[in-house]
Amino acid sequence: MYTPDEDGDTPLILALQKRRFITSKYLINRGADITIADRKGKTSLHYAAEQDNKELMQMLLSKGADIESNSVNGTPLQCAAASGNVESVRLLLGHGANPNLVSSISPSPLVSAIISQSYECFELLLKAGADPNIISSGLRPLTCAIPIGEAGFLKSLLAAGANPNLFSDNDNNSLKPIEQAISVGNLDFARILFPLTERIPSYPDWSIHGIRELRKNAYFRFVDQEGKNAVKIKDYATAVKWFSEAIYIKPDDAKVISNRSLCWAKLNEGAFALVDAEACVELRPDWAKARYREGVAWMLLKVKPNT
């Protein structure tokens, strides 16, 4: 009655997966083994925490459920935080769950709370001693808070001791929080972080504007190169997407516009090729390649240009 099926699921785990809570309580009271984990490593407590079922969690904990049991989704606390389940997080912390115990493939409880955008779970974890600088699965709390864009997360992390001078992950070639904030266009966060950040030598102009310009140029080079790489393998549709992103960053770069005109021509889109070619001519009227692109576009349209 209580043994796992061919998929490794016990009747109790199946009942919890299907939210059959009355059945789950019956099985627990009848002596179901609450320590058995399924193929993902998840025990009954993991499922109860994900479902924010405080009553079942209390039953399981009173019968000796392992509060730090690990799974592909982490500990029960990680599962609760990832689901934004405030009461489950509160209960698990109250029973001594470690807010800094992480698995190798799952984010820390604090990062999970940020990703789920549960400020209540986040505050509970900080008050319980969650490390604001902890790194798990290549993620730091500040790294995750910046793209979320909620100032409360950022300010609370800094107040709790988050270090804005640490790289986003273990790779020292990655971005620091202020670079990340500027890269995602969050200048409000950049203004908060700038006075707290030590000067980064690679920026000659150490200012928000200087960082922004250098980051913009770096990203422009990246998308432009991706477009060129796509052209090399004749994936012109993908190249158009990359070059379009580059043009958004630098709308007056004739070379990139010329490259997109080439791609439109290769896709037999004469009208689009002509628009880009004419833009090149306007930007650089003496550039032979711009005139060539224009001629190719007219040939595709099989219309003679006005003379």
Automatic annotation (TrEMBL):
<dbReference type="InterPro" id="IPR036770">
    <property type="entry name" value="Ankyrin_rpt-contain_sf"/>
</dbReference>
<dbReference type="InterPro" id="IPR002110">
    <property type="entry name" value="Ankyrin_rpt"/>
</dbReference>
<dbReference type="Pfam" id="PF12796">
    <property type="entry name" value="Ank_2"/>
</dbReference>
<keyword id="KW-0040">ANK repeat</keyword>
<dbReference type="InterPro" id="IPR051616">
    <property type="entry name" value="Cul2-RING_E3_ligase_SR"/>
</dbReference>
<feature type="repeat" description="ANK">
    <location>
        <begin position="40"/>
        <end position="72"/>
    </location>
</feature>
<dbReference type="InterPro" id="IPR011990">
    <property type="entry name" value="TPR-like_helical_dom_sf"/>
</dbReference>
<protein>
    <submittedName>
        <fullName>Uncharacterized protein</fullName>
    </submittedName>
</protein>
<feature type="repeat" description="ANK">
    <location>
        <begin position="72"/>
        <end position="104"/>
    </location>
</feature>
<feature type="repeat" description="ANK">
    <location>
        <begin position="7"/>
        <end position="39"/>
    </location>
</feature>
